[in-house]
Amino acid sequence: MSENKSVANKKLIFPHTYAFLFSILLVAWIATYFITPGEFQRETNKETGQTTVIEGTYRIIDSNPTHLFEVFKTIPLGMENAANIIFYIFIVGGVFGIIRATGVIEAAIDQLMVRMEGRERLLVPGFMFLFSIGGFSFGMAEETIIFVPIGIAVARAAGFDAVTGTAMVTLGAASGFIGGMLNPFTIGVAQEIAEVPLFSGFAFRLSVYVVILLFAMWYVARYAFKVKEKPSHSVIFDIEKKSANSTSIPPISDRHYLVISVVGTGLVINIYGVMKWEWFLTELTASFIIMGVAAGVVGRLSFYKTFDSFVEGAKAMTFGALMVGFARAIVIVLEEGHIIDTLIYSVAHLIEGLPQTYTAICMFLAQSFLNFFIPAGPAQAATTMPVMVPVSDLTGVSRQVAVLAFQYGDAITNSIIPTSSVLMGYLAVAGIPYERWVRFVWKLILGWMVIAVVALIIAVLIGLR
């Protein structure tokens, strides 16, 4: 009896993301001994700089399996090959560490509360819009965890519950993350690998972002006011009865307005630089450094505090940044074993003859499935885009649509999969059991997936490039 009880009490343990990536690396190495090697001919477009697979040129070549020691060498090689992306992630994370240290985000929330006093119906959309900006501009994800207690405090003060407070922060950021118009960690990485202009397709992504955000606002507000009207409708009603509101929120000041001005100006310059001056990762990284130092100065941080906050922000990015190098190592093994083109040929052959809209949807579903195992966006981009880009070339689906399929597949399920460290982190802070959160959020995730499928179909039909 006690033995059965102990078995029943055992929790399902998911593998560490790095362990999973290392396992894939070993599987890729073993595959070089069994999969027939082959290669396509490629050509480079002199005008766009894109390297594309030439259809009909696939041929079988001599076997060249990778030796075991070479497998371990691919990890530092992967870090070296992806160094520009890895350090971009570190530096952007560091800059936003400085911005957070000025207290501007908490102060902006306080100002939002003041303006919405007596207008609770605007509270949910106001909060979600504010955090969505962080989601689409700098990929706000881990950062939401520190704001969840504030969101809960605000929600309970308005008569809502902790689920509403958590959703206002995290699902707001998630809506922006799905839109991803300026997200350097997902769109930036994927578009670089796909060799399409950085942050291109902005207008289309903006349109989809608006739909995604409005649907999320309606969904969360509908739940919130059901709870306000009848508290027993809360999915955590029993937990709410034991909870108290104790989180204080700091007021906004002139220095916070100056920080907001610096960050806003910096983001506008980055957008203009990408569109008009052909800026890429190096220029954007330099611009972010200037933005961070300027934010520290106007935010009245000491030089020590500025750079200490930079280091703290960069440290928070370590988990996701180094994954890019691990993921790149997998691609190196496949390339050196000459089996990556065989995989591309097989996938393209499998979906050959399907309408392009179906191909785009299949890409989205494949990315959504892989997100369960590789929930870090940069790592997933580095792992899958080297395969998806040639497949898109061979099937006639534009590379921009392939990036979209990755973007939606990576972002949407982050708010429900148990392998997401961000999700499990903010649920722990909020004191919300995972299964209760799933009861609340699953219909929203389903709605977002439907919107993504429709968006992909439209993108194919209008020839988005």
TrEMBL record:
Its main location: membrane. This is YfcC family protein. It comes from the Bacteria. The keyword Transcription does not apply. It is a multi-pass membrane protein. GO terms for cellular component: plasma membrane. InterPro entries: C4_dicarb_anaerob_car-like, DASS-Related_Transporters. The keyword Ribosomal protein does not apply. It comes from Siminovitchia terrae. It is found in: Cell membrane. The chain crosses the membrane at residues 12-35, 85-109, 121-139, 170-190, 202-221, 257-274, 286-304, 316-334, 416-434, 440-464. Keywords: Cell membrane, Membrane, Transmembrane, Transmembrane helix.
